Amino acid sequence: MGNAAPRAQPQSVLDSASQYRTFLMDYTPRSMDMMFGSLIGDGKFLKSISCKCDEGHLVVKIYRKYDERESLTSAEVALRRLALAFSVEQQPNVIPYADFQLSNKYNVAFMVRQYFASNLYDRICSRPFLTMVEKKWIAFQILRALEQSHAKGICHGDIKQENVMVTSWNWVFLTDFAPFKPTYIPEDDPADYNYYFCAIDATRRGCSVAPERFYGKGSVSMSGATGSTPGTGGINSMKTPDAAMMLSRMADSEVTVEEVDKQILAMGMGSATTTGNPMQTPPLTASNSSAPSSYSRSRREGSLLESMDIFSAGCVIAELFLGGKPLFDLPSLLKYRTGDSEALRYQLKKVGDPRLEELLLHMLQLDPTARLSASGYLAKYTSPSGLFPTYFDNFLFRFLVLVLSRGGKVPDARIRLVCKYYGRLVREIAGVEDPEGEEFFKLRLKEGYGSDRLATATGGDQQTHVAQRVLEELNQTIPTKHDKQKAERDNSAPTKLQKMKEKENDMRGLSSTLQKKKIEKLHDQFNALNQKKSNSLLLGYAPVAAAAAINGGVTPGNFGSSSSSNGPGSSSSSANGVSSSGGYPSSSYRNWQPRKNVLVAELAEHSGAVTRVNAAQDYSFLASASNDGTVKIWSVRSLQHSVNQGSRCTYDGQGGVITDMKVLTNSHSVASASSDGTVHVFRVDKVNSVGGNVQTTGLKELRANNSAVMAIDYLNNVTESLLLYATRDGKIHAWDLRMRREAWTLSISPELGYITCITHSLDVSWLAVGTSRGFLCLWDLRFLVLIRVWRHSSHRAIHRLQPCLGLPNTLPLDETSVPLVFVAAGDGEVAVFDLSIGACRAVFRTLEAQASEAEACKCPTLLHVPIPHRSRSVLGSFLGILGISTAFDEIATSPLSEEPSVRAMLCPSLHLRGIGDALITGGEDRQLRYWDIRNGKQSYTVCGNGEAKSFYDNQAPPNDWWRMSSSASAPKRFDEMPSVPVSTAQAITKPELAWSKLSPPLITVCQDSSFYSSPGGVAGAAASGAGGVESAISMERRGLVPPSPAHTDCILDLTLVELGSSQNPSPMLVSSGRDALIKVWK
Predict the structure, then answer these.
(1) Most CB contacts within 10 A, which of 502, 610, 803, 1035?
(2) What is the pLDDT of residues 988-1027, one digit of tens each?
(3) 861 or 869: whose pLDDT is higher?
């Protein structure tokens, strides 16, 4: 994890809260609804996000892989082992990551843990400030947390103030274990340290990394394994570059120091006299042996040692008593590493306690072997007159563990425990008696509810009962193995809890002695089940995997999915594509392609053309919009069955023809646009797992001023949730769904045509619209400025726009820094344009079998339109008077076109990250085509061509592909003036000069011999009646032809849904057409 070098990871403009919100939608936790809260940590290595869920708040840390070949198997194994090793009952001061998942769609990984309101750094700086005894109590718990962790053989690796969480009652939790971070880092290059260990708050440059974890060019710090300190001679004193390089290779090997000496003597480099224990392999982070060597980090991955955690904890405790000020920064720590300890001694004099100063000096000494363990420090400094009072260990710590484990998440239960043991608390901590206070809290308990009230209202000697109960509770151990197994076998915890409550109420008539014993037993079982119920969200791993991990048999195959499981011991592949045999995405995603002519379902409830189909981001439902004025909701899970394929709900509260529809991301809300000038936003509720009926709830109605709404889009960023809708009069309105107001309005000149489609970048930095006359406009959304206007060389309408994530002939950074867009315009072709300079980067074209080579290799261009400075002369200098008149005539008539153009377009990688680079198109030819972007010869026709043959091949572009002169020969309307002056052979425009320096575009051609693309086409067939004599003869030769599953009219939209089980997900292609049908393809 983090195997790519920090310098190799580009600064991406996509690293924003909006992008991480999109990433988070691909995280699939178990049985809970999670909502994005805020970005609380914008570190270089991990991004921290606060999320809301049914159980409260969670923290999701996102790691972004910049190298697709990087394997996170070792990190996954280490983190899952941590979650299995720790429990609240046995390690009450430790909170590991509760879940780890890899994304299906994106190169990111998720780590999830409980949310805490403040860390130690926040608590030190907050009022009321900590008193001296509170600081000692927190320091005591930090050492306790280390003791609990080291007892399991687990080291933290990155202890600092930000990773020590403090509750409102000063209970300490040690979080964010870092087994995936490097053990050793270079001292002469701060890049690794700043990337992995620098605090989130860049202004606080504290460094708490143990000095033995740094190594230099001529020396390798092996003190963590050998016991030597920097600057003490031995191996560390060697300055020979060859020796340092050899030690760099040996840093992770299981060799003893004596063997290292022999190796050095054999090389003739002198001798080294260093003694110590042999180096050990990392217990948690396995090296990435599967990754290529060129992608492995040049770092030392050695074993984390307890002494390293002790030093880091010493820094944190010192900072606690110094008011939060860093004890070391990186330069001062490296100076201290050389043996200069004067600055440290001067700083520790400020703590004002000789015993504390002695503790810190001992924890921060350079020799790691001289440092004690956490339990050793607790035993040495806990005494009646010592640094830590004895009641810290004898009573207070044990009592608060009881409050933590028994009180659960109910504050009232914790208060009842404090009331019950008030007398003992006062005696142990303050050393005084308070009988009046004890009596007061007893009366309060009688007014309460639950087993506590019953226990204090049983009559008899209540004071004796409370005293006995205090001792029994404090001395009670965790539930027995039999009790745990019994609780695990019960799948209905709420029912059992209710039965126990009823039994408690029945105990009122029993004798006092029997009642006490039975109530205590029921109370224990009640709280045990409550604890199990509260932990079911964060812990739920298979018992077999847990046993294997604890017994040391931890392998990737021991772990199944943390989000779903077939049952106890299940280790099948999870819904996120991580199989039990590794950490890579499922091959079913990476190699997925739609199969030829395999129809899964056909939905035929609409009575008009189905213009749009769109699925919810969690694939809980599919929405379809039609010209019949309705939006229908379908259950995605029912699509894989041969029965029960009817729609679950129909929204018909909007008049007119539905022109566009979109399911809003991060929600179950749907926005639909109509020709009557309205936009409706409604929510889909009660979509159950079986696929039952749902209902829709209207949220908002937006109305344009006497103009039809042609297209809609949805932008979701940190501050705004914007619904964009474009009207026929050229206005683009942005409605903020959160603030319930119009955020801004853009407009285009009517001479350009009406808006037909809208798209935006993934980071919501730019917006592109296409028009009915082939114009393409680009806005910078940061400043709401129109920055580019082009016209497609075909002069045809732009039917679809969609962002492109990258091409083989572009640089890897292009997908994040260059706006690449798929543009569907012209005769049966889709082109990819670089909107920064208007250059064509790829073409996917369909031609008839008799097409010439010149038609196959031509490249469409975007003709630049200068943006005028005055609003009254909008585009007048370009179109001219005759051109403007023609434009108005075209807009007024707008006949229905029968040209074989592409009307539907889908980029699968925008839906599922693991799918290879591809494009799926459909249009007037009624055929679905799968275009392999990287290898055009692997493209094929999914359905629609019957027995006709389609040949796919790569076509080389002409040498002067970058010339715009070819646009002059484009077909012009009968009364339209030329768009631009024809370029001469000598003159080269600035755009042409820029394009000529780029690599040639990729051209993939499909030569189709189907009936639709044959000469004469539909008209010829109609003229010959039943298809002509040749058609009748061919039909007779073929015999009985099965019915085609393809659409019988133009395909208007495409989308992807995910069917199948969580262990075996199966993406499906959904198409809709003018024939009023929705088809699902496997």
Answers:
(1) 610
(2) 777 777 778 788 888 999 987 764 554 444 334 433 343 4
(3) 861
For residue 689, what pLDDT is reported? 52
> CB atoms < 10 A from the CB of 341, how many?
15
Q: What is the pLDDT of residues 300-318, one digit of tens each?
A: 568 899 999 999 999 999 9
Cβ atoms of 119 and 173 within 8 Å: the answer is no
Q: What is the pLDDT of residue 618?
A: 85
Q: Output the furthest CA–CA distance in the chain (Å, rounded).
A: 112
- All structural domains of the chain, each given as residue ranges with its CATH number in brackets, are 17-115 (3.30.200.20), 118-214+302-380 (1.10.510.10), 599-645+655-894+903-961+993-1008+1043-1069 (2.130.10.10)
- C-alpha 144/C-alpha 137 separation (Å) is 10
Nearest Cα residue to 222 out of 158, 153, 276? 276
Nearest to 146, CA basis, from 399, 472, 440, 373: 373
* Residues 112 and 29 sit within 8 Å (Cβ to Cβ): yes
Cα–Cα distance, 716 to 720 (Å, whole number): 6
What are the backbone dihedrals phi and psi of residue 100, each rounded to the nearest 5 degrees, phi first? -140, 125
Closest to 716 (Cα-Cα) out of 661, 777, 773, 760: 760
What are the pLDDT digits (tens) for 35-64? 888 888 888 899 999 998 877 889 999 998
In whole angstroms, how far apart are CA 573 and each of 69, 73, 413, 539?
A: 20, 14, 40, 18
Could you tell me which of 817, 1001, 824, 1025 has the C-alpha nearest to residue 907? 824
Name beta bridge partners: 63.
Answer: 109
Q: Which helix (H) or strand (E) holds 121?
A: helix 120-124
What does the alpha-carbon distance between residue 2 and residue 289 come to, in Å, rounded to a whole number? 14
Q: pLDDT tens digits for 319-343?
A: 999 999 999 999 999 999 999 999 9
Tell me how far apart the alpha carbons of residues 989 and 996 are, in angstroms, rounded to a whole number: 11
Task: Give residue-wise pLDDT tens across range 892-918.
Answer: 665 555 557 899 999 988 887 667 788
Mean pLDDT for 82-110 is 90
Nearest residue to 121 via CA among 174, 160, 95, 168:
160
**Cα dihedral 109→113→119→122 (10° resolution):** 70
The pair of three-digit structure tokens given for residue 964, joined into one six-digit string:
């715009």
Instruction: Confirm if 722 and 735 have CB atoms less than 8 A apart.
Output: yes
Put simply, whether the predicted model's pTM sits higher than 0.90 gets the answer no
Of 7-16, 368-377, 801-810, 836-845, give the range with the top mean pLDDT. 368-377
Instruction: Provide the strand spans (E) within 103-228.
Output: 108-114, 164-166, 172-174, 185-186, 214-215
Alpha-carbon distances, residue 963 vs 855, 966, 999 (angstroms): 16, 7, 14
Quick one: CA dihedral 1051, 1052, 1056, 1057, positive or negative?
negative
Which has the closest alpha carbon to 213: 377, 369, 368, 370? Answer: 368
DSSP 907-958: -GGGT-TTSPSEEEEEETT--EEEEESS-GGG-EEEES-TT--EEEEEEPPP
Q: How far apart are CA 849 and CA 831, in angstroms?
A: 21
Q: Are residues 829 and 803 in contact, defined by beta-carbon separation less than 8 angstroms?
A: no
- What span, in angstroms and rounded, lies between the C-alpha atoms of 771 and 757? 7
Q: What's the CA angle centered on 338, arms 333 and 343, to 5 degrees? A: 55
